[in-house]
Specification:
Elements (H helix, E strand, L loop, with lengths): L2 H20 L6 H12 L4 H11 L3 H10 L11 E6 L2 H19 L5 E2 L5 E6 L11 E3 L2 E3 L7 H6 L3
Parallel strand pairs: 1-3
Antiparallel strand pairs: 1-4, 2-3, 4-5
């Protein structure tokens, strides 16, 4: 069996089991997408198609949800995802300099993944912890009061 057909069958089976577990209601779409993203690292076209068939939701609507929420990804991400807050409070607290240092250290711009698959760098709107801005999240670890000088040490914690 060709590899792509096997992968498509695997994702279809995975989606069927997930929808059976979580439910077929439209209200379950975001939790299901979040689960797929966490398990697979991103939400593929095959996953969107299978989800559409299982939940009876047009693929265009699912794609709109996937591309609207920055917590979801439609393309593979690196092993470590850096989310940097670009909201006004973080910017005023020195976020621009931290953003520039992240770009310099990673060699990436917003939305890119490193060639070695280690890092994905994305900006996000307010993370809700403005009192300790600038703020960034690496995977599930939250860093506040970030300065450009702290970036190399923060990144060194990740293999």
């Amino acid at each position: 069996m060709p590899g792509n057909l096997k992968q498509e069958q695997d994702i279809t089976e995975y989606i069927r089991a997930l929808v059976d577990e979580k439910g077929h209601e439209k209200a379950e779409l975001i939790p299901i997408l979040h689960e797929i993203n966490a398990e697979k690292g991103y939400i593929s076209d095959d996953a969107i198609k299978a989800l559409s068939e299982q939940m009876k939701i047009p693929t265009s609507q699912i794609y709109s949800v996937v591309t609207f929420y920055r917590m979801l990804s439609h393309k593979p991400r690196g092993r470590h995802v850096i989310q940097f807050c670009e909201s006004a409070p973080c910017h005023v607290a020195g976020g621009r300099l931290v953003y520039q240092k992240l770009q310099e250290e990673l060699g990436l711009i917003n939305g890119e993944t490193s060639e070695n698959g280690k890092w994905t760098f994305v900006t996000t709107s307010c993370l809700g912890i403005c009192g300790v801005g600038p703020v960034m999240i690496v995977d599930h670890d939250i860093y506040g009061n970030v300065t450009p000088e702290k970036i190399p040490e923060i990144l060194s914690h990740y293999d």
